[in-house]
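Exercise 7. Predict the joint structure of the components listed below.
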Amino acid sequence: MLIDKDLCHGCLACIPYCPVGAITYDEVENVSVINLDQCAECSACLRANVCPNDAIRQQELKWPRTVRSILSDVLTVCVESGISGRGTEEMKTNDVTGRFKRGYAGMAVEVGRPVVGARFYDVEKVAMAVAALGGIEFEKQNPTTSLMADPKTGKFKDDILNEFVLSAIIEFPVRLERVPEVLEALRKVSSQIDSVFSLDISTRVAPDNSLPTEKVVRDAGYWISPNGKTNLGLGRPLKEDN
Amino acid sequence: MTHTLHRRGSADSLSRDIIFLIMPSKDINHVGSHVPLKRFFQIALEEGAIKIGDCRSGNEYHQGTLDNVINNVQDRAVIHAVFDNKEKAITMMRRLKEANLGLSVVVSGLLDMVDGCCKTAGLQRHTVEHSLGVWGRVDKLPPEPILQINTMCGHGMVTVALINDVIDRIKTGGLSVERGAEELFKPCMCGIFNPKRAAELLQKIVDDERAAAKQGKQVTAKPREEFVSAW
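Solution:
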């Protein structure tokens, strides 16, 4: 995103709308300026529609900068998933896809969320730490997976490593008994990154209405939230368990 | 896209924060899905949703009117309705069960409460997703009260700077907490931000800061430990 300094009057109205603080005020020229290295191309400043002079402009984005928009602009529709946003249908349509079966957990590591944002150097560290466990297959429909040079190792394409995004989601299913080793790998890599990640885990509800992931996570010594998402099983045709 | 997950706060506050999402699945039931999606919006508004929104086309401010939000729904959209109490949620579940829209519905909220609502409405939950918290450089996060507002937009569009700006304007009398909460809703394109809950949280922040100022102290609440897994 750019600010046309010939049109900007330095009113500062756009500055609070940037999620990553990429817009600053240039006192000498009395204009607001976007730091392109820090800008995630999320369009929040433009969409806020607060500039009295329409000075905010979307420049043409070329690879690899397009990665920023795909993973940061809420209204960008991703080719891989076919839906807007950074992730996939994941557990939301599990009643009709059967993506996460009994005995498995769906896990997602959203690097950069909340607030901080992330460069792909850090996304790669997390993905490689998970991939190194072996037998992990990243979700093919996830846009983050499509940016990997080698999904088996979690290595990303070299030319995107410095790209900055609001968040990138590393998503994969794993057998329930392997959840503790995944959590341990994530614990170790969490101290090696310069960002944060929000972590989540999904499970098919057991026939007795219990949640198998609750016990696995607690037994491994980790905190699990009292709130979350519940798929009501109203989708049709319902995918039968097998 | 876990944009309705990772909300933070007390159980009391979260009990008034319930988000319904409905979406088709690609190549399974997406063709013609704009029809049941629109019906979902109509039912939600009849049952007292405080906000509705559409991930694909944007919220009522972005699209101009609430009618546009309803009329512009496309196949493959992911749409939402926000409710502020469990009685409304139960009624909404019953209506959705009766309507048999055929699309996947996900409810975000306190899991035990939502499970209770399901039982009352005659539904059996299918799949559940938990947050395991925030890991890594949690020292970069803002104070917990700000984070509780920020995380109501999972895409991060309700910025920390805007929240602080709104708080300043409330403190100087330039905005009511309700108007401030509505200003914070505007950047949340999916319409999942809960302005009623935000107004409560803003009021508490302003009250706490005023009380602290009277005592010559500064409010420096950092992220709460039980919501943050850090090493």
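Discussion. Residues 225-231 of chain B have pLDDT under 50 and may be disordered.
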